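Good morning,

Attaching, inline, the backbone tokens for the sequence recovery test we're adding to the shared suite. The designed sequence is right after.
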């Protein structure tokens, strides 16, 4: 009954937590990342792996402590005997008790190396967990920006529809006055339909982007999920000139994947030492005490135990002579493992360097693209404003107006893309510099 109550209480807690999470319908980037890290399966599995590493480390340290074992046995025996011409079975019983202890005195530092290796496993597991968290955080950042981008697309599409709606009403009035042809009116009406389709697509993309973000967060999909609109400022271009060498040196000192690769190399080096320990003799000591009882003697039970006490102590030296190349092979395999760990560390550093080189180039390109898009949008916006006014005055036809409006939509879309591409590029560089992800 108590177990059932505990289970129901836990389920109620989980459900309540999910309900509260869903009620908090406006999320910042930091809240999204924190929520995702607390519930991500890979993160939780990494934490369990680290718990196992800590248990293995405690077990390795315990190898220094002498072992202690106790045993007892009760035996019953029967033998055939002949008494007064009759045969039968005669039974006897006996008891044996013993306590034994043993400890390793020398084994070429094998136990010490096992302890070091176990401690390095804990350290490596911590770095692996941090690497996983960073990867998830970057995924959340990208998904968060995709939602922001999609929401701005929707806003822009609605503004375009509002603008075109005014021109459509004007075209309808002119059609009634027979100032323009039915074909001109139909073109403006077609433009309105096209922009409505663009809005529908934008809203669909926004919904998909929100679902993607919620799924990355391990949050049940809900229709009232919203994110905080950060104040990105008027001037996004920071005109950064990132230095690859400086960023790379900073990242080498702080990135967990680099530290993890270095720890794995240390573990591989200890593997070789552990394998080499089998070349050397192993010295161990043992001690024990035993006593027993037999029904064949007439002495009382406890007297027999007291008189039969037999202490023992000794040393054991195991000298390896020929192991059918087992030790030699283990050492050779451990050396190969160390070389492989060295290559993995080099590869990790190379991949980090390449990623930083790409990130620095992305910033340079994104800044140029953003400035070009901004200039194009400003020029197109002025041109479109003039076209709108000319269309109202009947100076230009609907074809010229639609061309101008289409150019503005394209320029606005390109500016929006370059804007969020620039923001993401800045955040990636901050990530390599160890700056927390935020907006």
């Amino acid at each position: 009954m108590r177990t059932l109550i505990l289970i129901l209480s836990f389920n109620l807690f989980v459900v309540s937590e999910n309900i509260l999470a869903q009620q908090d319908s406006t999320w910042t980037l930091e809240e999204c990342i924190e929520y995702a890290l607390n519930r991500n399966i890979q993160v939780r599995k990494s934490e369990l792996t680290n718990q196992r590493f800590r248990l293995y480390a405690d077990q390795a340290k315990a190898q220094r402590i002498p072992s202690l074992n106790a045993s007892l046995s009760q035996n019953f025996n029967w033998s055939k005997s002949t008494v007064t011409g009759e045969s039968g079975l005669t039974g006897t019983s006996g008891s044996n008790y013993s306590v034994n202890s043993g400890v390793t005195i020398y084994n070429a530092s094998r136990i010490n190396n096992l302890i070091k290796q176990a401690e390095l496993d804990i350290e490596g597991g911590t770095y692996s967990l941090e690497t996983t968290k960073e990867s998830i955080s970057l995924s959340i950042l990208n998904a968060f920006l995709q939602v922001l981008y999609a929401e701005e697309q929707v806003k822009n599409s609605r503004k375009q529809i509002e603008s075109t709606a005014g021109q459509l009403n004007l075209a309808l009035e002119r059609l009634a006055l027979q100032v323009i042809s039915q074909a001109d009116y139909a073109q403006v009406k077609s433009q309105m339909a096209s922009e409505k389709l663009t809005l529908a697509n934008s809203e669909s993309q926004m919904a998909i982007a929100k679902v993607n973000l919620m799924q990355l967060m391990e949050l049940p999909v809900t229709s009232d999920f919203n994110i905080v609109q950060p104040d990105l400022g008027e001037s996004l271009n920071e005109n950064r000139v990132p230095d690859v060498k400086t960023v790379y040196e900073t990242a080498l000192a702080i990135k967990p994947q680099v530290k993890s690769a270095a720890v794995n190399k240390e573990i591989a080096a200890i593997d070789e030492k552990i394998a080499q320990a089998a070349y050397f003799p192993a010295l161990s000591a043992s001690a024990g005490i035993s006593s027993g009882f037999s029904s064949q003697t007439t002495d009382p039970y406890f007297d027999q135990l007291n008189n039969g006490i037999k202490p023992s102590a000794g040393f054991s030296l195991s000298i390896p002579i020929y192991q059918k190349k087992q030790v030699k092979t283990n050492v050779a395999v451990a050396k190969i493992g160390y070389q492989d760990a060295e290559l993995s560390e080099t590869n990790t550093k190379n991949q980090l360097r390449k990623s930083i080189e790409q990130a620095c180039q992305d910033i340079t390109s994104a800044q140029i693209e953003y400035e070009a898009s901004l200039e194009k949008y400003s020029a197109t916006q002025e041109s479109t404003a003039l076209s709108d006014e000319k269309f109202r005055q009947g100076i230009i036809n609907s074809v010229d107006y639609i061309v101008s409006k289409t150019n503005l939509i394209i320029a606005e879309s390109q500016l929006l893309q370059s804007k969020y591409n620039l923001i993401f590029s800045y955040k990636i560089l901050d990530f390599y510099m160890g700056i927390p992800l935020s907006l």
